[in-house]
Amino acid sequence: MPENSGFSEKDVQREVSDLEGRSATAARIFDLRRIIGGLFVLYGIIVTIAGVTDSQAAIDKAQGVNINLWTGIGMLLLGVFFLVWMKLRPATPPQQDGPAEERPPS
Amino acid sequence: MHTPTDAHAYLAAGLRLPTNGLDYTILAIYFVVVLGIGFAARRSVRTSLDFFLSGRSLPAWITGLAFISANLAATEILGMAANSAQYGAYTVHWYWIGAIPAMVFLGLVMMPFYYGSKVRSVPEFLLLRFDRGAHLLSSILFAFAAILIAGVNLYALAIVVEALLGWPQWVAIVVAGAFVLAYITLGGLSSAIYNEVLQFFVILAALIPLVVLSLKKVGGWGGLTRTLTRQHGDHFVTAWGGTGIGSANPLGANWLTIVLGLGFVLSFGYWTTNFAEVQRALSARNLSAAQRTPLIAAYPKIFIVFLVMIPGLVAAALVPNIGTSASGLQYNDAIPYLMQELLPNGVLGIAVTGLLAAFMAGMAANVSSFNTVFTNDIWAKYVVKGREDSYYVRFGRLITVIGVFASIGTAFLAASFSNIMAYLQTLFSFFNVPMFVVFIVGMFWKRASKKSGFWGLLAGTTAAMVNYFVIYKQGIVRIPTDQGANFVSAIAGFVAGAIVMFAVSLFTRPKPEEELQGLVYGTRSPGMAEPAAPGDEAWYRRPALLGWGAVVLAALCYIPFSF
Question: How much is the pTM?
Answer without folding.
Answer: 0.90
